[in-house]
Structure formats: structure tokens, C-alpha cells
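hey
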């Protein structure tokens, strides 16, 4: 990473932390249920901010880098929609009150930023030392895409099998039920974790599993750590608002999973063919954007209820 990019990365992280603190300390200081209007407003804010950053990249580093960021952001944003369905299932499973869901997602995003930053650093180091690792990523993405395409719609939640949750219960006692928005309580001079903290742990470990899919996908577009990291961060920052905006509309986009499966398979093939038949970034962006758009349009034209009614 060049010195200018290192300075830009430091400033970028300072800005992100400042925005998150502003969000939690001022706008979300009082625990409340996020309405769809508020959620749509914040979601639009993060999307516009991401696009403005993309414009800044265009004038700073040129068209190619700007297109790489936009393509990577589109991939990460699309994959995050699939994550939202799992988060919805988790909150339903644990019966998390709506007014506390924002806090779980906020701290979950902070943890996701740290974990993804570490994974990206490891990925960049591995690629710079063992370039053939890109082919491993490519095979993994093709396999993941095919598996996603044939995966059942139902999501099974088994928090009792979560390694992190089992370790937590061995280290700290866990109190039943929720105690406001608190993650920990002090009972008889000893700290105990609340059920809300258990939910946070499950959300964090679930996001880590999703990152194992999404981060190799963006390495098919670029290996520039600055672009990989910033596109990931912007996608994650808008994830929380997007959850509250789309939580009640998840079933509308039932074809999106097939679209994401095609995208993952495509970027995996792109990675495998990088030295034989390199696919230009403009074509990659058009294919990825087109597939996602078609999957959304198909979901609206052929609703899930209609499909269920027509099936034998």
C-alpha cells in the first residue's frame, strides 16, 4: 500500500468511527423501535455517502479504481442482503425486542469491521506471497455459488452448537431473559452476561462465516487492500439500516439467492481465468449488476405465493 493510501486509510477509519459514535451517542441514544421511514433514510444516507466516496476515488485514482470499488461494493451489498435474512431469523429465534435490535447490530458491525479488516490483511498477505491462493479462492467461490443455488430456503438456527456461545457460558454465567439493553449485569458482586449478549455473539460469529464468502469474492475484482477494505466497510455500514428497511420485505426477493449464487460462481470463474482470459472490470460490473437486477425484477413479476400456487 502506497503512503498516500495509508494516510487515506487512517483518515477513513477515523471518519467511520466518528460517524458510528455520532449514530450511537446522539441519533440512537434512546433505545427505540426503528421505523421503516427512519431506516430508509439512513439506508439512503449510507448509499449516497458510498457513491460520493466512489466519485472521490475517480478523481483521485482514476476510472479503473473507481469501477473496482463500485463493483466490489455492489457484490458486498448484494451478499449482505442474504445476511439480513439470517439476522431476521436469529432475532425471531431469540425473541429480541425490536427496540434492542439496533444496539445488537451496531456492536455487531463494530466487531465485523475489526474481523473483516483482519481477514483482508491476511488475504492480501497470502496473495502477495502465494499468488496461487487466488485459484483456491476461485474454486471455493464456484463451489459456494453452486451450493447456494441448490440450498433449501429454510434456515435452521442452532445457537447451542455455536462454539463461541459454548465458550462464553463456560467463562461467564448467563442470565435468562432480557434486562433492558444491557449486555452485562452485576449480581452479588459478580458480572453475568445477559441473553442480549449471547445474541450479539451469535451475530458476530454468523457474520464471520459470511465474510469467508464475501472477501474472496472481492479479491476476484481487485487485490488492492484499500479498495477491498473500503468497499467492505461501506457495505457493512449500511447493513444495519438496510435490515430495518427490508426486514418485512425479505420474502419479496426470493429469487435474489439464485442471483447471488450466479454472482459468486461468476466471480469465481473470473478469478480462475484471470491469467488465461481476463474479464475487464466494465464487463464484470455489467454482469454482476445485471444478474442482481434481473433477480429482483423476477421476484416482483413472479411473487412467491404465485409460484407456490402453481406448483403441484
Amino acid at each position: 500500500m502506497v503512503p498516500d493510501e495509508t494516510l487515506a486509510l487512517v483518515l477513513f477509519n477515523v471518519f467511520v468511527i466518528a460517524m458510528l459514535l455520532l449514530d450511537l451517542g446522539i441519533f440512537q441514544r434512546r433505545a427505540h423501535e426503528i421505523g421503516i421511514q427512519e431506516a430508509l433514510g439512513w439506508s439512503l444516507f449510507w448509499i449516497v455517502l458510498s457513491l460520493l466516496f466512489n466519485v472521490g476515488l475517480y478523481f483521485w485514482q482514476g476510472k479503473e479504481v473507481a469501477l473496482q470499488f463500485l463493483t466490489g461494493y455492489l457484490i458486498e451489498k448484494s451478499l449482505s442482503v442474504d445476511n439480513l435474512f439470517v439476522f431476521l431469523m436469529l432475532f425471531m429465534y431469540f425473541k429480541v425486542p425490536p427496540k434492542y435490535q439496533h444496539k445488537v447490530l451496531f456492536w455487531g458491525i463494530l466487531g465485523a469491521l475489526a474481523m473483516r479488516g483482519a481477514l483482508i490483511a491476511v488475504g492480501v498477505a497470502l496473495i502477495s506471497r502465494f499468488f496461487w491462493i487466488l485459484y483456491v479462492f476461485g474454486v471455493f467461490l464456484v463451489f459456494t455459488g453452486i451450493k447456494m443455488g441448490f440450498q433449501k430456503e429454510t434456515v435452521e438456527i442452532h445457537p447451542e452448537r455455536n462454539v463461541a456461545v459454548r465458550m462464553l457460558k463456560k467463562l461467564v454465567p448467563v442470565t435468562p431473559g432480557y434486562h433492558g439493553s444491557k449486555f452485562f449485569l452485576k449480581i452479588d458482586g459478580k458480572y453475568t452476561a445477559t441473553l442480549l449478549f449471547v445474541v450479539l455473539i451469535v451475530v458476530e460469529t454468523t457474520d464471520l462465516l459470511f465474510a469467508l464468502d464475501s472477501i474472496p469474492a472481492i479479491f476476484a475484482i481487485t487485490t488492492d487492500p484499500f479498495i477491498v477494505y473500503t468497499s467492505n466497510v461501506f457495505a457493512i455500514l449500511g447493513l444495519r439500516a438496510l435490515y430495518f428497511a427490508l426486514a418485512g420485505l425479505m420474502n419479496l426477493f426470493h429469487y435474489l439467492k439464485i442471483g447471488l449464487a450466479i454472482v459468486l460462481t461468476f466471480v469465481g470463474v473470473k478469478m480462475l481465468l484471470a491469467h488465461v482470459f481476463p474479464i475487464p472490470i466494465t464487463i464484470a460490473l455489467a454482469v454482476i449488476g445485471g444478474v442482481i437486477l434481473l433477480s429482483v425484477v423476477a421476484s416482483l413479476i413472479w411473487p412467491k405465493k404465485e409460484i407456490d400456487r402453481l406448483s403441484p
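The beta strands are 184-187, 190-193. Residues 63-94 form the longest helix (32 residues).
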